[in-house]
Amino acid sequence: MDGDVSNADTTPPDSDPARKRRVHGMLKLYYGLNEEGKTVDQAESLDPCDINGPHFDPEVYLNKLRRECSLGELMDQESCMVKQIRSLDSDMQTLVYENYNKFISATDTIRKMKNDFKKMEDEMDCLTTNMAAITVFSARISGTLQDQHAQITKLSGVHTLLRKLQFLFELPARLNKCLELQAYAQAVTSHRRARCVLQQYSHMPSFRGIQDDCHAIMDKLAQELRQKFRDGGSSAKDLSECVELLLQLDEPAEELCDKFLTHARSRLEADLLGLEAELRPVLSIGPTSVVVPSTGPAGRLSATPTAGSPIDPTSPGNPFLSPSSRTDILEFIDRGCNEFVSSLCLVIASYQELFVNRPQESNLAYKNIPQMAVGKLHAFVDSLAARYFSLVERRIQEEKSVGDNSLLVRALDRFHRRLQAVAKLLPGSAVPSQGTEIVVRAARERVKQYLAALQSFYLDSLTDVRQALAAPRLGGSSAGGGSHLGVPAAGKDALASLPELLSSLSASILNQIKTVLASVHLFTAKDITFSNKPYFKGEFCSQGVRESLVVNFIKFVCQSSRQFCESAVDRGGSTPPALLLLLSRLCLDYETSTISYILTLTDEQFLVQHHSPVTAVTALCGEAREAAQKLLNHYVKVQGLIISQMLRKSVETRDWVNTIEPRNVRAVMKRVVEDTTSIDVQVGLLYEEGVRKAHSSDSSKRTFSVYSSSRQQSRYTPSYTPSAPMDTNLMSNIHKLFSERIDIFSPVEFNKVSVLTGIIKISLKTFLECVRLRTFGRYGLQQIQVDCHYLQMYLWRFVSDENLVHFLLDEIVGSTAHRCLDPAPMEQSVIEVICERG
Amino acid sequence: MEDDAPVIYGLEFQARALTSQTAESDAIRFLVGTQSLKFDNQIHIIDFDDENNIISKSVLQHEAGEIWHISASPADKAVLTTCYNINWSFGALGVQNASESRVVTSSAVWRMPPEWESGSHESPDDPHNSHNPQSLDLLCHLDNSAHGNASCVLWEPMGDGKRVISLADNHALLWDLTESSTQATISSSATLEGKGQLKFTSGKWSPHHNCTQLATANDTAIRGWDLRTMKQIYCIENAHGQLVRDLDFNPNKQYYLASCGDDCKVKFWDVRNISEPVKTLEEHSHWVWSVRYNHSHDQLVLTGSSDSRVILSNMVSISSEPFGHLVDDDDLSDGEDNHNDEKTKEPLQDSIISMYEEHEDSVYAIEWSSADPWLFASLSYDGRLVINRVPRALKYRILL
């Protein structure tokens, strides 16, 4: 039975399934439970009520039914079962019939087969006898023919040999003939065919003779070929044929490569020289007309600086005008591309055809040629390309005018595009990447030039503004004889133009920036081949344009503005104050809107993706604000200083002890008020009003007397009581209550009132300090009283807090009273009368 | 602690002149000269008791006129010079159109009466002791009526009290005093020539180079003079944007000079290279009237301004001790030497140490005490004298 098991296991799965099932059944019988059938059997056998299961127990099933079902159900069940039994019976009958039929037909077939096989056996016997007969005949025929066959073979061998020999003997003559007809190719083929044989039989004198003859002829032929190759005039096809033949003649390939390349080099260098010749004439054409002998390396070296000179940074407006040049860069590059690059490509192509891409022959000598040849080609191309690049770079460097960028970009594009051909021909070459580098360098240089141009434009426009500010003033002062008293109208004309100047200045700067951005944008245009290089996609936009162009320019504006403050402080302020004011407003405008506008514009145009950290808008704004603040502070300082100087001179130069009784307000005070008014107008043109504290109803009428403040009085009491520290502490506290500390040179806010307050503070404080250094007579004091009242009448309206003016003027009058030998103050009513008289 | 709180003293007159008593090295003593046109002027001798934080004062009458500048002899405690205004009036004041009065500034050498010293020593605590003020004894006039108005008088630094320089209008006059200082003779003089009315505003006698150099200020320029030849040796044109108000020499670095002026700046100069200041401070918001180096620790610089502030700055980078105090070997034996090392290695930065705002009016004079290097006085126009100390933390940082 074990054997059966193994049989069953080894039976292929497609064998008779019925048989398999039977074996299964037997195994099950034997083991009770088969290993693999276990689960299935268990699932079946568990239920004795399963009518289809093998463990069906009719008794149990019947009991179960009887127990569980009602009578009706039992009836139904019974009828159903009867029905099933009937159908099963009929099925079985059908099966039995079918099987029976098949069995009968199988029996018929077997019987028929038995008959057929008997017939076939007879036919096979017949065939065997025939075959034997054929073999016998065939042996007999070959026996008879054998002799003749050997003879024929021998004869044909002799014939071939003879033909070969004849070829050999005819070879020298034939070669000579070929040489005469210049059918080099045929000669070479013939010679190649014979060469080995001649080599092999060279010990035989006759063959030796032939070989020598052949060699002589072939040498001559090689000579001729070489000559032809060397002449160079022949077409590329001829050349390549030459090379092909020479190679077949075992000419050393290296030498051939070298020769080919030197030949090509001479032609390419002619192109390069042509290009160089175009560069050279710059020397004589340069507007500075420095005639330098245009030959020799020294002359060539000086070409760049001379070419740079037309763009003189001092000549205003020039950078945007193109200097006349004999050929523009586009033409130059075109010529370079058409002549040099295209012939270079041709050379590369034919060279590769000849040496690199030759069909690989089995000849071992050729194995190393491609590597060697490619190496040589690379060196060749590199050296020539380097020269070409240096020429192109020189030409690009000459391109200093920032007027029309499109020309340069197009030239660069063409340059770059043409190099792609080289890249395709010569995949491993460094030439295209070097070309890209040149483009990148040119772009960088361009950005720098634009920055310089922007900066000089900015400075030029500042000079223009300066002139615009100075021009009307000069006319006015000449009419008024240096005094501003007579020329308020002319002054106003100059002042009125301030906002226009500001707007035109900022508009022109903005325009210029936009123009520059548009020009630079050409570098990244879609149709430009190099615009998809990583540099132009990333670094050029963020570092190049945004940082080094736009951000640097804004920084430059701030910085140059700040320089106005620093340089002018010590040297007496050569900058006109109006310019300071204007610049301050400009910087403030930059802070509030322009910077973010420009940067947004840049970012949008260039789709800057900030890979590297870039300067934030806020930092720039901070810088601009700082510059604006500094400028405004400086403006206040300068204006304050001008008024201070007037006041100081007026106090210092007068003999206050021996002065006469005041009848008028001193002219200086009128001038102070006038100047302040004009400053007020000036500032008002650019800055908003600002907030001020509420005025008292009669500010101008406010009376103030010499001894108005009680603290002055108390300190003045002629008591000799020694002042104890406590006493003064109390005094100082009262003092502190009375007034707040005033910072004289404090930063101002960006509004008119604050600016004016600053200027007036500085002026009045100077007045105070000067007064304290002098000694006054009675009328000196009275004059100061009159002057202060006059200032009081006019200055309060300018400041944020009129109490400040009151306080400072009180101090001045108080200090004067202290410094007075005979303090007899003037009647307030008299003062008012004098002041109103003007 | 409370020790650091400022001590305030009030004079009943306005005052501009302040000096420390240079010859006194034990007591902290300042001299203040008052300015009054109507009453007799006084010199207040302010003694400060450091331990008890108490000020005591004595008053001497200075009848000659209002005091614009005061300077104490470096040799004799009792000797001092003043520059003062004399009001000459020919004809009666108050009569209209007849005022012929003239104001002239003159200078003189004075001696304090001997009684003052004894008196002050007997009862220093009693502030009411000086009810009947004594007068100064005139030793001699530095008679320079021919040379114009005196602006200041300078004693030879650390000298024997025999030589003074007075600056009058555009003249610098070097005086020799006799033993008793009763007579003064001009030994040499220099005159500033130039367009317009030139006038020395201030000056300083350099303690270096064997006291042979003088620095003066006029308008925006600072000039150096060699006293042996009385020739100008350098001139810093446009040292300040506006008037130069005061100068001081670094006591430890011979070529360093500090100046201040109406452009609100304090500048530090190396006189060997005068094209640019070494350093500029811009902390005051109005004219800076006075600048003083501390006598022993020249990184401490004091400035007083008419913005009513006094500023104490720590200019370590240009001081004679740019790397902090060098620790001596003796100090290293100390138990805390490691701690000291750490301190000295900290990089010191130039900085504002503090801003003193006790004054209500313009501060025209400031002075370090000659006895205590950590203490200084400032005087404002309203007659308030404030005595302050260098903050204790900084003091220890410099010392340790």
UniProtKB/TrEMBL annotation, chain A:
It is found in: Golgi apparatus, trans-Golgi network; Recycling endosome. Component of the Golgi-associated retrograde protein (GARP) complex. Component of the endosome-associated retrograde protein (EARP) complex. Keywords: Endosome, Golgi apparatus, Lipid transport, Protein transport, Transport. InterPro entries: Vps51. Involved in retrograde transport from early and late endosomes to the late Golgi. The GARP complex is required for the maintenance of protein retrieval from endosomes to the TGN, acid hydrolase sorting, lysosome function, endosomal cholesterol traffic and autophagy. Acts as component of the EARP complex that is involved in endocytic recycling. One of its GO terms (cellular component) is membrane. It comes from the Eukaryota. Residues 1-21, 703-722 are annotated as: Disordered. Belongs to the VPS51 family. GO terms for biological process: endocytic recycling; Golgi organization; Golgi vesicle transport; lipid transport; lysosomal transport; protein transport; retrograde transport, endosome to Golgi. Residues 707-716 have a biased composition (Low complexity). This is Vacuolar protein sorting-associated protein 51 homolog. The keyword Transport applies.
TrEMBL record, chain B:
Residues 114-134 are annotated as: Disordered. Keywords: Repeat, WD repeat. The gene is EIPR1. Belongs to the WD repeat EIPR1 family. GO terms for biological process: protein ubiquitination; regulation of cellular localization; regulation of transport. It comes from Esox lucius. The lineage of its organism: Eukaryota, Metazoa, Chordata, Craniata, Vertebrata. PROSITE patterns: WD_REPEATS_1 (PS00678), WD_REPEATS_2 (PS50082), WD_REPEATS_REGION (PS50294). It holds the Pfam family Beta-prop_EIPR1. This is EIPR1-like beta-propeller domain-containing protein.
